[in-house]
Amino acid sequence: MTPDSMVCAHCGLSITATERVRGRIAGIDQDFCCQGCRGAFLILTDAGLDDFYRRREGEIGLPAGAYENAYGEDYLANFVRPDPDGAQLCFIVDGIRCAACVWVLEKLLGRCDGVLEARLNYGNHRARVKFDPTRTSAARIFSAVARIGYLPRPLSVDQGEERAERERRALLIRFGTALFLSMQLMGYSLALYAGYFQGMDAQAKQIFHYFSAAVATPVVFYSGAPFLQGGWRNLRNGVPGMDLLIAMGVLAAYGTSLYATFAGGEVYFDTAAMIVTLILAGRLFEGAARRRAAAGIDLLLRLAPQTARRLLGEQREEISASQVRCGDLLEVRPGERFAVDAQVVGGETEVDEAPVTGEPLPVWRRPGDQVAAGTLNLSALVRVRATATAANSFIARVAQLVEEAQMRRAPIQRLVDRICALFVPAVMVLALATFLFWSWRATEISPLLAAVAVLVIACPCALGLATPMAVLVATGAAARRGILFRGGDILEMTGRLTLVAFDKTGTLTLGRPRLTDVYPAHGSVDELLALAAQAECGSSHPLAQALVAEARRRRLDFTPAQNVRTLPGRGLEATTPQGSLRVGSEAFLRQAGIDIPPSTALEGATQVHVALDADYQGVILLEDALRPEAAACLQQLHTLGLSQALLTGDSPQAAQRLAAKLPLSSVHGGLSPADKAAWITAARAERERVLMVGDGINDAPALAAAQVGCAMVGGTDIALENSDLVLTRPDLGRLVEALLLARRARILIRQNLLWAFAYNLLALPLAAAGQLAPVHAAAAMALSSICVVGNSLRLGRKELLRPEIRVN
Amino acid sequence: MLQSTLILIILSLFIGAAVWLVFIWAVKRGEFDDIEGPKHRMLDEDDARSGKPNRRRDS
């Protein structure tokens, strides 16, 4: 706000510089003309009545500039996050009613200058816009959304809930009103029916008509307002949608009845009212299902507390979690949750990480250890240093991933979308044709009712819901189990896999190798270990860590080597005062021209060879134990009809020894990351659909080469962004669950589509032939949506996955 | 006949309207906001005041 235009935030009068009172309220700097105004503002905002400031502008609907008062450019800038392509903004859009709204908003935002990508989640009405900050701004995006009649608001968890609550209540009241009035209407209709057969006093009939009109009017124009508005929006934007079909059906029935009330003839007020009531009932069910499916993400986000206690010297201050910056020192008491990802700097405690990683037992955390946002501090007060802001914490990114996944469209859905776009205009033509045909034939079938039935029955609600609903429920259910699908397309593909390729270290095995033997070529065991540790101490590879840990345990003295070069899958090369040091696989050393004496005792175990210049120093043997659940899980995958392969960078002997215990169809050792990727590409060429399971770092090319790349991470962030399927806990049982869930989801999507298509195909001719009353059409349509939603919800059930899958 | 019918219709409208007002009042008061919670609440311990079912752990 510039000084010359400064006005009081409460009373709106201009402030002179000498009288200005500043206040920081709810994280926003506000200016007031006096302390009294500041107090009043504080009271109103504290009571959650900030709506006052918007309401007093006399707004009905959405006047220009309404949101600009609430969200200044500077304030909105807080919600913009950097992104590889520029910047990203997440916000909530009020007023979304159907998939067509989503489509219109996405298209319109996409056309704005500087907007790179706009995605809107129909499930929770959240928009994610990627834009170029040099060409546009958050405020401009907001005004673009507001211009076409929707209300955008910056995203925070509380606001989302509040909005959902408000919309749900509004819908419930609309439905309740419609139900009550429709019941009255049914009474009048019954009387009119009786009168139709037994004869009725003309005056009495007229009175019943008037009552019917009086009762039906609020149903159509109040309860049916969402459809009328939606239909109007469809019409204005030239995008025919489901709302338009419903609105036309209702208005046609209502309009002719109103005409008949005064001009004489039969009335169909009950038809108009029942269509509205039944479809509202369908939406109520749909909304409840959608909320249940999205609850997984909300639960995740709600875990992280909204406030944190920051330490400044000896002072403590409560600040909002979003204000925590990297490097801030925070204090967390036992029983509190961590607000951001952080590193412990003072104190030791037990942390319950169950909600984030699924690990049921508390984990001991010491200074230097990482703790994740949303996890619970159990036993003692600790001081932590923030390593990420709240918006970038692991949990927020996971939530974002799940949300993105629900926004990504499955290929099958794109087909459905295309069909829908053709469907609506076709139905309008069909309805018109039906009307004209029955008018021309002049039978006892009412042309108008037949046309209305066509309009109502054709509403492709079930078709539009079939895939997204199943994907939403499946990804939500998966997320609760610690399985993250990157999108509907991945879910679909996962259900069709034929081959699973495993990496060995960290995937089939625990990834924590133990040192078993050391064979120095000359010199002592300790000398060889110290030499290897010099090169390996900077590496995060599990073999390196085991080696360095052993060296430390023996209290060996070693200095980290300079210029360490990592050759993924082969070894390390470093420069030391003693000469050029090479630590790695047999092949790697042979390549460097080093002569390795043949040895027979080394079969099976993982070998790390060490050489100084051309001088062979010896070999260190390490062994990595198989995961306890691995054998059972692979057996289950086998019974599911999947062939399995082991691809490892380890020696073929080590791979074979491991494979002997497992139902693997092929075993390949000594592969470099590029070899693994090549093997997968070759398998794909043979029409296999491949899932690659790895730990993320050195398997990246293989993960990318496979149709579905699955990373197993233990609550760390390594492969989160690069893989299609993420298991947040290193447990192969989850992999089996993921596959089962994906298969179920695929079957369900097919069932849904089949049902929706069959239903429309069967009912449309009936309606066009005048054999289906509009009321029955509306009931059948709501029922069809409920069937699809209910069928999809079955995916969220716990007992769905066979109990014997659970190994641990 | 018509007279009595009229009275009955108007009476039913009034009674219905009264029920409708009670319904609106209940919605506004948030009686329908959480239809899952109450049945779990009696099983909750004292600290669970949110009315949400307890977080279940996947084992």
Automatic annotation (TrEMBL), chain A:
Entry-linked SUPFAM superfamilies: Calcium ATPase, transduction domain A (SSF81653), Calcium ATPase, transmembrane domain M (SSF81665), HAD-like (SSF56784), HMA, heavy metal-associated domain (SSF55008)
PROSITE patterns: ATPASE_E1_E2, COF_2, HMA_2
GO biological process: copper ion homeostasis
Domain HMA: residue ranges: 87-153
Record has S-adenosyl-L-methionine as a keyword: no
Source organism superkingdom: Bacteria
InterPro entries, per database record: ATPase-cat-bd (IPR021993), ATPase_P-typ_cyto_dom_N (IPR023299), ATPase_P-typ_P_site (IPR018303), ATPase_P-typ_TM_dom_sf (IPR023298), ATPase_P-typ_transduc_dom_A_sf (IPR008250), ATPase_P-type_domA (IPR059000), HAD-like_sf (IPR036412), HAD_sf (IPR023214)
Keywords linked to the UniProt accession: ATP-binding, Cell membrane, Ion transport, Magnesium, Membrane, Metal-binding, Nucleotide-binding, Phosphoprotein, Translocase, Transmembrane, Transmembrane helix, Transport
Cellular component annotations (GO), alphabetically ordered: plasma membrane
Pfam families linked to this entry: ATPase-cat_bd (PF12156), E1-E2_ATPase (PF00122), HMA (PF00403), Hydrolase (PF00702)
Stretches that traverse the bilayer: 171-195, 207-228, 240-261, 267-285, 415-438, 450-474, 753-772
Subcellular localization(s) per the UniProt record: Cell membrane
Membrane topology: Multi-pass membrane protein
GO molecular function: ATP binding; ATP hydrolysis activity; copper ion binding; P-type divalent copper transporter activity
PANTHER family in the record: ATP7, ISOFORM B, CATION-TRANSPORTING P-TYPE ATPASE-RELATED
Record-stated family: Belongs to the cation transport ATPase (P-type) (TC 3.A.3) family. Type IB subfamily.
Protein name, UniProt field: Cu2+-exporting ATPase
From TrEMBL, chain B:
Region (Disordered), start-end ranges: 38-59
Pfam families, sorted: FixS
Membrane-spanning segments: 6-27
Origin: domain of life: Bacteria
Keyword terms of this UniProt record: Membrane, Transmembrane, Transmembrane helix
Protein name per UniProt: Cytochrome oxidase maturation protein Cbb3
Organism for this UniProt entry: Geoalkalibacter ferrihydriticus DSM 17813
